[in-house]
Each structure stands twice: as structure tokens, then as C-alpha cells.
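dumping this here before i forget
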Amino acid sequence: MKKNEMRRILAAALASGMAVSLAACGGGGETSTTAATTAAATTAAATTAATTAAAETTAAAAETTAAAAETTAAAAETTAAAAAPEIDTSFTNISVGLPLVSNAISEHDTSEELYQYVVNFLNDYTGMNVTWNFLDDDAYYDRLDMDIIAGNVSDVVVAGNSATFLDAAQNGLFWDLAPYLDEYENLGAIPEAVRANASLNGKLYGLPRSRNLGRNGVGWRVDWLEALNMDNPEDVDDFYDMLYAFTYDDPDGNGVDDTTGLLICNYSGYW
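structure:
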């Protein structure tokens, strides 16, 4: 009996010990779960903080970019202002230097009356008081170089492609007119290709004498072609045949040898 009682006591003690062990194990599982939850919360908080910091960094970068853009725009405005100084419209007296073709005096009416008429017309039209400095065409550009060197150049001149003029322009003697062209309807129509060809290092120191690319051409009497039963010429040989017929085949039909196949002026630039 005593042995059986002892066994029952030991069994009860063992059962109690196992219950305690299981409880302890159960308590350890709850602690692990709590720690994991705490770690997850900490990680989430860290992620949120990192996301917030990244957002703040992005916003700061955007503000920096915007500030840089404003700085660039301000710099561009400053550059534009520097490239296009304001025009002083208070002055009225201006001198203009022009080449005068050497034989113009003998071929055209250059009387004082006509000269004064032109001067008065231009002064009234522009609201200016213009002094015209005419120089012989043959010596004009040499004289212009000397005037530039001596600092005695007119306010407005016809400029050539001389080294003296180009050097003076780069040193600030002449204005860069490029910023002003589009302010005027006629000047604004100058093609970009013409502006580029007339520019020096991106600056335009004069108004280009823009001309049509195909400004020289030939015209002929269509009625004479019809009278001679000829078609419009399409090549050089046809053109020669037309001129020959106009000269020798009596295109006006009057029976008199009084027609000429080709007339040109004494300017040989066409050829």
C-alpha cells in the first residue's frame, strides 16, 4: 500500500511538473510573438520615416530645380538686355556715309534742288536731321577704313567685308543689330539663312542687303515667238535659236531688218 501511495504521489508530482513546463513554454511563445510584433512595428516606423525623408528630399530637390530654372531665366534676361541696349530716341541729328558711283554726276541730275528735295523728304519721313557724307565709290572703302582708325566714322555707313571694319565691330564700335530686327515688319522678314550668312560670331553688325536668290533672269517677246511659230526655249540651244530668229526672221512682220535678238544694259554682272 505504501508503495502504491508513493507511486501516486510521484505521478501527481510529475503531472504538476509537466503542467508547469507547458505553461512556461506557453509564456515563452507569447513573449516571442510580442517581440516580433514590436520589431515589425519598429520596421514599419523606420520605413515610414525613410519614405517621409525621401519625400522631403524630393521636394527639396524640386525647389532647388525651380530655383535653378529661375536663375537661368534671370540670366537669360540679363544677357538679352546686355545684347540689346535701349535705343536713345532723343537724338535727331545723324550722319550717313554712302558711296557715290563715280559717273553718277555726269549721268544723272545732281542739281542742288534735287539733292535738297531728297534730303528734306527723308528727314520728314524719319523725323531726323540727316547729314549725308558722299564719297567716291572707287575710294569709299579705303576712306572708310581710315575714318574708322581715326575715330571719325559716320553714324551709319555702308560697310564692306574689310578686316578693319570687322575688328572695329568686334571691339564695340558698331552695334549688334540682331536683337532688333524682329521689332520691325520689313527687317523681320529677312530670312534666317541670310542673317546667318551676314553674321560674325553670331552677331549681326549691319543690315544685310538681302536680294532674291534668282534675281537675274531673261525675258522675251512671246508675240514674236507666236509670229515665228516657235515655242518657249527650254535649253541654251533653244535660246540661241530664238535670238537668231528674232534678229533675222522679221518677227514684227514689217519687212524691214530692224529687230534685235537680245538687249542688255552695260552692267556685265549678269554674265
